[in-house]
Automatic annotation (TrEMBL):
Residues 20-375 form the AMP-dependent synthetase/ligase domain. It comes from the Bacteria. Residues 158-183 are annotated as: Disordered. It comes from Nocardiopsis mangrovi. This is Class I adenylate-forming enzyme family protein. InterPro entries: AMP-bd_C (IPR025110), AMP-bd_C_sf (IPR045851), AMP-binding_CS (IPR020845), AMP-dep_synth/lig_dom (IPR000873), ANL_N_sf (IPR042099), ATP-dep_AMP-bd_enzyme (IPR050237). Residues 427-502 form the AMP-binding enzyme C-terminal domain. Pfam families: AMP-binding, AMP-binding_C.
Length: 527
């Protein structure tokens, strides 16, 4: 990439999402952290500028790859924005990874600097001997042997705008995928693609008092899909270190949060616990749900608890965040829909031959200025998913004549029974409609472990009961047998206290890990 100063700083992602608001409305509150006093856009911008000058003083140069191992939400916001402004390519690291995965990711990224905070000291120390290519270590949170003290450098730095580097199609960052289909891949986004994602709030109603609440999920792709859009849209961003259902019950009334974006499993956990009943959640006006299919029965429970809030669905992937968006609650709306293509984006569904189809199940294709540049250092893998302007990532869906997308899940998750394919969400939705069920997860396991017919599967259903309910597996199986055709009926029902979820949702449940359901609950032989 070019290391010359950007001719137009408004094409630099960090400058565009933060400094533009600092110039337009310097006194507006941009961010509050852990219930502390708010930072105005001007104050946050000046703090980020000091971080940017400090990073430059530590030796970071435009175009250099800088690994960021940050768990603290304020550190993520300030350091990411500073790196974006000075044109370093941020390698976003998952603070939940173990040392082996982390060392592999950093080594593969060719990063030469690693920035970490006090909360990740142990992990940084564990991987340091394995990273001979990292010649510069920088710490947020005070001095440490062998590391530059970013706080001390920032205290001596000016708060004026640094020289802006990087813009347009220059690489902005490497964001890891969730790893749900294999080892995490490093997705390269540009300043332009991240800025296209940041324009999310053009499609979402907001007022002058809009307050967006979130937690540590803002590291990685969460920054351009959550924190960046909030700042770019002029909202007040409420940052908590944890964003679990229990935290929401405290923070929403304290901060008068109006907007949240979570996965449906978050609400399944929230509403399964009776603690929500006494919390004042009346400030919530906009709920954005995505990341996994939502059962209409769960949506109905959300609407019953929060009747004043509008509920929106979305769909996207790390490679093309927030591609579809639309309201899903209320008369005439499809509760299973993820909406239509966002402004400036395009969505289609194709059959196995690559032909676009309507009202048929096929692979979801995404296109638009928000799409990734590619997978870092993996041209063959990139070529396999980028087909002209389209990204094809292996998710199945159905699109109607009006452009409304219904996401059915991963192609690899579909269950084959009696010679017919079924997305697990279909079975999970039917289970969630039962009064005793708070959450359900369906997977297939081989009907013939000896390999006689390896493709044919049986259906395993794991369910979490609602608060106060004590459902019997046989009753759940009988109820679903009356609702579902034979090829979708569970062959085994397990009642459990919790379903396995990822750890990336800043304290709340992440995506449902169906592979772990199979490990935990599938029998060793046919029942």
């Amino acid at each position: 990439m070019s290391t010359a100063a950007a001719a137009d700083p408004f094409q630099n992602y960090g400058y565009a999402v933060l400094t533009a608001n600092a110039l337009a409305a310097p006194g507006r509150i941009a961010l509050t952290h852990q219930g502390g006093p708010g930072l105005s856009y001007d104050a946050l911008n000046r703090s980020v500028n000091r971080r940017a000058h400090a990073l430059t003083a530590a030796g970071v140069r435009p175009g250099e790859r800088v690994a960021a191992l940050l768990g603290g939400t304020l550190a993520v916001a300030e350091v990411y924005l500073a790196l974006f402004k000075i044109g370093a390519v941020t390698v976003a690291l998952n603070p939940f990874w173990d040392a082996g995965v982390l060392a592999h990711a950093v080594g593969r990224s060719r990063a030469t600097t690693l920035v970490h905070d006090a909360g990740t000291d142990g992990l940084a120390a564990a991987v340091r001997p394995r990273l001979p290519g990292v010649g510069r270590w920088v710490r947020v949170g005070g001095p440490a042997e062998g590391s530059a003290d970013l706080d001390a450098l920032a205290a001596e730095a000016p708060d004026s705008e640094p020289e802006v580097h990087g813009s347009g199609d220059d690489p902005l960052a490497l964001f890891p995928t969730s790893g749900s289909t294999g080892p995490p891949k490093a997705v390269v986004h540009s300043h332009a693609s991240a800025l296209a994602t940041a324009r999310l709030w053009a499609d979402v109603p907001r007022g002058e008092d809009a307050v967006f609440g979130t937690g540590a999920i803002i590291w990685g792709i969460g920054f351009p899909s959550i924190a960046g859009p909030a700042l770019h849209g002029g909202l007040r961003l409420v940052l908590e270190q944890e964003w679990s259902p229990r935290t929401l019950l405290t923070v929403v009334p304290r901060e008068k949060v109006t907007h949240i974006s979570v996965i449906p499993s978050f609400f399944a956990a929230l509403l399964a616990d009776g603690a929500h009943a006494d919390a004042d959640l009346s400030s919530l006006r906009t709920i954005i749900l995505g990341g996994e299919p939502i059962a209409p029965a769960l949506l109905a429970r959300v609407r019953e608890r929060l009747p004043q809030a509008a509920v929106y669905g979305y769909y996207g992937q790390t490679e093309a965040p927030y591609s579809a968006f639309g309201r899903i609650d209320g008369p005439g709306r499809d509760p299973r829909s993820a909406g239509r293509a966002r402004t400036g984006c395009a969505i289609r569904v194709t059959d196995p031959a690559g032909t676009p189809v309507v009202d048929e199940v096929g692979e979801i294709n995404l296109a638009g200025p928000h799409r990734m540049l590619g997978y870092d250092g993996a041209p063959e893998r990139t070529a396999a998913v980028l087909r002209g302007p389209w990204f094809v990532g292996g998710d199945l869906g159905r699109i109607d004549a009006g452009g409304r997308l219904r996401v059915l899940g991963r192609r690899s998750d579909t269950i084959l029974k009696h010679g017919r394919w079924t997305p697990p969400s279909v079975i999970e939705e039917a289970a969630a409609e039962l009064d005793a069920v708070a959450e359900a997860g369906a997977v297939g396991w081989p009907a013939h472990p000896d390999g006689a017919a390896p493709a044919e599967q049986r259906v395993l259903l794991a369910v979490v009961p609602r608060a106060g309910a004590d459902p019997a597996p046989a009753r759940i199986a009988a109820a679903l047998a009356a609702r579902l055709p034979a090829h979708q009926r569970p062959d085994r029902v397990v009642v459990t206290g919790r379903l396995p979820h990822g750890r990336d949702a800043s304290g709340g449940p992440g995506k449902l890990l169906r592979s772990e359901i199979r490990v935990l609950h599938a029998p060793g032989e046919d029942p």
